[in-house]
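Box 3.1. Reading complex inputs
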Amino acid sequence: MKRLIAFFWGPADPRAYALVRIALAVAALANLIDLWPHRYEYLARDGMVSLEGLRRATAGKAYVSIFDSNPSDAGVTAIFALAALAIVALGLGWWTRLSAALVFAWHVSYCHRAFPVLHGWDAILRSYSFLVLISPSGRVWSLDAVRRPDPNDRADVPVYGLRLMQWQLFILYFMTVWLKVPDVFWRSGQVLAYFSISQYSRNSDGLFLVRHEWLSTLGTYLSMAAEASIPWLLWSRRMRFLGMAAGFGLHFIIGVTARLGVFSICMIPPYMAYLERGDIDWLIAVGRARSMSALRARLSSVFSETRRASD
Amino acid sequence: MTVKAAWATPLKALASILFLGHMTATCVQALPEQSAIRPLSVPFRHYEELVGLWQTWDMFTTIPYFHDYDVDLQVTDTDGAVSREGILLPGLRPFDHAVRTETLFMRLLYDPEFVPYLHGYVDEACREIRAKRGHGGQKIVVHESCQRMRFLNQIREDGKIANPEEHASAVFTCGG
């Protein structure tokens, strides 16, 4: 039991929580902006997702939503505006706990009301909103800390919230590999070629990967290898930046080639939960580098660490 | 030791057990329906529904099948005249190729779990058609025009990416 308590209640850098909070707010805002043009279609009383149909489909399930009040178009717009305000407040760290509760309520509400239009990134936003809500608030880097400074703002906080967030990302990647491995197209390496000409591609008439199938095969296998290894790399302190580079690279490529930019943005907050004090100090040092030589020195320090770890 | 300090360890232990429960819930939701240990997920069901723990990305588990996708409503009026209406509500506006909307109709038309939503959609579409035309009794069909992708070797042979396909839902009758 002592080990279990130490695992969940050991010390953590509050800046890691602050980074998750800020990244989550950016992702949630991007998602809200993406939903905005479709708000009446998915969430209003005369939209495409009927409240009666929802009640029949979810009978007996734990579904609650502010949209169950069947708001008018103006009501839906008002809820969106309030949600946007709460998301911005969360990112700024203004009334952090209250805004975290409102952001979670927003995600639960639209996810329950518009269940048939959801994708994987909605679940990421909802689960991480919940984890941010129950985690130490990370008053560092917040308006709350500016308004009411407290010497304890920079003190260590319990690590349990970060542990739960790390676990969520681990399961997320494990599940995606679990589901993809049996698929014949993932195994043959043809996924990228087909995806590049599908309705989800930004350039679905381009035949480059079809004509150069070996590139599709290489890319398909590399993306599978990245997804299988990212959780393990992130857990290793010395390999962490390699894991981050692989993850951000993977999601950046998805974001620029597929019509799924919001998905890529929503994948950023979970990575922040893996950052430790040394990582954050290093990132700040990189950010403060005033010359190219200083920046090169900071960057090379992480690669030399990674190299040492692999030797 | 103060009372507060005395309670700290048991409370942390209790919270740790709850955290373990959360982590377990994150795992068991992923068990296949056919698995013998799937019943382990039952106690966590409502918790999962609330928190949104499921992380199954069905969009990427295999290839997409369509190069292009369009959907509209085919309306047969009481006098037999056939016309087309946009699929988007409110307003019976044309399909805008939004990824979420496309997902909505793929689920409504092909996943039995979403049948109540399909009936709800049809009720709302009929209400709009009645309001627009001043009467009911029309028969409506959700009509998909797809471009189904061909195999890679076939595409390389002639450069043609996809073959056209038409799909129609069941016929629904709008009340008077």
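In summary: Chain A touches chain B through 75 residues (CB under 8 Å).
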